[in-house]
């Protein structure tokens, strides 16, 4: 086993109460913690007293057990489930500097393999050398929130710093909780949610964490691009974290 201190960069919604986490170590290595025999759920993000331990820009110490790469998901590590030690939270002024340090030039530069475009943007399973990266948005065109086939959908259309446009699904846990809060608690219509977020983000400096989903039923050989983290300066969340919007619907 080896101990590592991570700055959390990705906290994303998966199916049900399952979540996916990733962070960057002091040496620049990106690590996606996994359990050997179970899935990580939202409950694990808190300490026994209900305080949030794991959130974006938190520094958390974990115990690594074994590297478990499956290209392009080369960042996977099995971790000790009962070890997650809070080591503080980056200050607001530190967060943008940190994102600049781990910045990629553009989306295509992240993965080390070709990106294909057919019903979304994807890479092939087994190709590429990593599945996570950070880009700065050159232009933000659209934020959309709709219900399709009984499921809520969250998407952002943007242009990266190479001038390439993308429209990607957002899996960022805080973004989703915030949008749900606007819809369920504040009663904001979906179109107005998009307009509100477009205005906020178009008037901010925006960084996106871009990741690759796993293959799934219809396309087991495809890893689709998604937005794992939405970070803006000023902060569109008003300096709140995902937990501030939990159980408010």
Topology:
Layout: E1 2-13, E2 19-25, E3 30-34, E4 58-67, E5 76-79, E6 85-89, H1 92-101, H2 108-111, E7 116-117, E8 121-124, E9 132-148, E10 151-160, E11 165-170, H3 173-184, H4 190-202, E12 205-212, E13 222-233
Parallel strand pairs: 3-5, 11-13
Antiparallel strand pairs: 1-2, 1-4, 2-3, 4-5, 4-6, 7-8, 8-13, 9-10, 9-12, 10-11, 12-13
Question: What this model shows, in words?
Answer:
- With 249 residues, this protein is of the alpha+beta class.
- It has two domains: 2-91, Beta Barrel (OB fold (Dihydrolipoamide Acetyltransferase, E2P)), CATH 2.40.50; 95-245, OB fold (Dihydrolipoamide Acetyltransferase, E2P) (Beta Barrel).
- The chain has four helices and 13 strands.
- The protein has helices at residues 92-101, 108-111, 173-184, 190-202; strands at residues 2-13, 19-25, 30-34, 58-67, 76-79, 85-89, 116-117, 121-124, 132-148, 151-160, 165-170, 205-212, 222-233.
- The strands form two sheets. A five-stranded mixed barrel has the order 1-2-3-5-4. A five-stranded mixed barrel has the order 9-10-11-13-12.
- A hairpin with a 4-residue loop joins strand 10 and strand 11 (165-170).
- The longest helix has 13 residues, at 190-202.
User: What best-fitting shape do the alpha-carbon axes yield?
Assistant: globular
Unreliable stretches: none
At the first level of CATH, the class of the largest domain is Mainly Beta
What is the CATH architecture descriptor of the largest domain?
Answer: Beta Barrel
Structural class: alpha+beta
Give the total of domains. 2
Tally of DSSP helical segments: 4
- Helix % is 10-25%
Spatial arrangement of strands, main beta sheet: 1-2-3-5-4
Secondary-structure element order, as H and E?
EEEEEEHHEEEEEHHEE
Tell me how many strands there are. Answer: 13
Largest sheet: 5 strands, mixed, barrel
Write down the CATH topology of the largest domain. OB fold (Dihydrolipoamide Acetyltransferase, E2P)
First CA to last CA: what distance?
41 Å
Radius of gyration: 17 Å
> What is the residue-averaged pLDDT?
95
* Strand residue percentage: 35-45%
């Amino acid at each position: 086993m080896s101990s590592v201190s991570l700055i959390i960069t990705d906290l994303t919604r998966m199916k049900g109460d399952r979540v996916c986490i990733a962070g960057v170590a002091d040496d620049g290595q990106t690590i996606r913690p996994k359990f050997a025999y179970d899935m990580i759920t939202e409950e694990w993000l808190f300490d026994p007293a209900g305080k949030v331990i794991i959130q974006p820009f938190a520094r958390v110490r974990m115990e690594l057990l074994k590297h478990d790469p499956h290209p392009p998901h080369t960042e996977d590590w099995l971790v000790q489930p009962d070890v997650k030690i809070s080591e503080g939270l980056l200050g607001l002024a530190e967060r943008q500097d940190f994102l600049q340090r781990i910045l990629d030039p553009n989306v295509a530069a992240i993965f080390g393999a070709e990106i294909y475009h057919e019903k979304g943007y994807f890479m092939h399973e087994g190709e590429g050398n990593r599945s996570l990266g950070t880009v700065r948005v050159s232009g933000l065109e659209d934020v959309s929130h709709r219900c399709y086939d009984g499921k809520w959908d969250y998407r952002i259309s943007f242009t990266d710093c190479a001038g390439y446009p993308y429209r990607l699904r957002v899996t960022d846990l805080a973004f989703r909780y915030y949008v749900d809060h606007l819809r369920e608690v504040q009663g904001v219509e979906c179109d107005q949610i998009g307009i509100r977020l477009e205005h906020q983000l178009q008037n901010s400096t925006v960084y996106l964490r871009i990741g690759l989903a796993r293959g799934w039923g219809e396309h087991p050989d495809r890893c689709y691009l998604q937005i794992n983290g939405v970070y803006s300066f000023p902060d569109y969340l008003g300096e709140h974290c995902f937990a501030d919007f939990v159980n408010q619907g």
